[in-house]
Amino acid sequence: MQESKPIAKKRLASQQNRSVENKISCPHRKKCGGCQLQNLSYERQLSFKQVKVIKLLGRYHHVCEIIGMKNPYHYRNKVQAAFGERQGQIISGVYQSSTHNIVPVDSCMIEDQKADEIIVTIRKLLKSFKLRAFNDVSMKGFLRHVLIKRGFSSGEIMVVLVTAVSDFPKQSQFVNALIGRHPEITTIVQNINNKRTSLVLGEQSRVLYGSGYIEEDLCEMRFRISPKAFYQINPVQTEVLYKKAIEYADLTGNETVLDAYCGTGTIGIFASKNAKKVTGVELNPDAISDAEINAGLNNVANIEFVCADAGKFMVEAANFGAEYDVVIMDPPRAGASLEFLRSLVTLAPKKVVYISCNPETQARDLSFLTRKGYKVRKIQPVDMFPHTEHVETVVLLSRQETSKK
Ligand code: SAH
Description:
Layout: H1 9-15, H2 29-32, H3 42-57, E1 78-86, E2 89-95, E3 102-104, H4 113-128, E4 143-150, E5 157-163, H5 171-181, E6 187-192, E7 204-209, E8 214-218, E9 221-225, H6 235-249, E10 256-260, H7 266-272, E11 277-282, H8 285-297, E12 303-307, H9 310-320, E13 326-329, H10 338-347, E14 351-356, H11 359-371, E15 374-382, E16 392-399
Parallel strand pairs: 5-6, 10-11, 10-13, 11-12, 13-14
Antiparallel strand pairs: 1-2, 1-4, 2-3, 4-5, 6-7, 8-9, 14-16, 15-16
Helix pairs in contact: 1-3, 3-11, 4-5, 9-10
S-adenosyl-L-homocysteine is lined by residues 230-232, 261-263, 266-267, 281-284, 287, 309-311, 330, 332.
C-alpha cells in the first residue's frame, strides 16, 4: 500500500470537505474539561494528534495521515449523566474534571442529541414523580446516573437508570411516562448501585421494559450491546478503524487468528469471514456472552470465545504450544501486560495488529516487541474522539525473520 505523506492542514480540509476554522464554542468548556482541544479548529486538532503520534511512535515507522471525521459532532453513541441536587433542584450533567461536583449539562456537542433530550426528560419526570436524586455524601436519594446507548444505524435506544436502592416507587407509571414522551426508546433497564464508588454501574440489573439490550449494525454485521459490555463509542470511526485493522491483517482464509481483548467479539467476527479459525479472549463475562450471541447473529461458526485475563490466556497458550498466524490486540488504556507480551513473543505469530486508544502505552509495548524480533510496518492514527485529546492508532507488526514458524 502506498503510504500517505505527512499531514497538510489545508489540503486535508479541502479534500475531506471540512472548513479549516470550525471551532466549537461550548458554554461548559471550562468546568467540564471533557473536550480538551475545543479551542482549536478541527484541522488543528488533527494536526495536534498527528504530531502526538509521530512523537510517540514515529521512531518505529512513518506515521500515515490521521483519518478524521467529516462531521465531528454528536458522534458519541453512549451518553452518561450524573444526577444530584443543588439548592433543592435536581441537576444532571458531568463531573467537573477530577472532582465530584456535577456541572449541569443539557446538551453536549459530542454526544448523541436524542440521548441528551431523554436525560432532560428524565430529570423533569423525577420532579413530577417526587423522586430524589442521589446525594453521594449522605448516601441518600434515588437516582444516581442515567446511561444511554444508541444504535446509530439500527435506531435502537437503551436507557439504564442507575438507582441507589432497588425499590422503584411508581415504577410502571414512570416507565410509561418516559416511553410516552420518547417512543423511540426500545428498552429500559434499572441498575442498582448502592456502594460508595466512582463506578457508574452496580452489580445487579433488572429489565423494566423491552429486551434489556440493543442491537447495532456495523460493517454489514449485527451486534448485541448490553448495559455493561464495552462497545466502541464512535460508530462512524469504528468502521474506519476495523476496516484498517482487517486490511493490515491481510487474511487469505487460511489463518488462525487471536482477537485479544475482544470485547463483544466485533473485530474477531469481522475477521472470521477471511480466516480459518478465530479465538477471542476477554475478561468481562457480560461482553463474552454478548460475543457468543453475536457470532450466532452473524452465522459465524469458525469463532470461539474464552473469558479470561488475556495475559494468563497467552501464558497458557504459549505453554500449550498453540499456533496463531495473526494476533489482533486491542487492550485498554493501560496497554498489554508484560506477561501478555512475553507470551506473544513465544507464540511468535507472523503478524500482530495492535489497536490502541493510548499511544503512550502502545509506544512502551512496541519498544518491547521491536527488541524481541518484531518490526513495525505500518502506523495509522484514527480520530475516534474529536475535540478530546485522545487518539486511536492501528499498528501492523510482523516478525523480522520468518524462520521461527
Ligand atoms: N476489541 C473490542 C474491545 C476493546 S476495549 C472492541 O473493539 O470493541 C478493551 C477490552 O479489553 C474491554 O472489553 C475490556 O473489558 C477488556 N479487558 C481489559 N482488561 C483485560 C484483561 N486483562 N484481559 C482481557 N480483557 C481485558
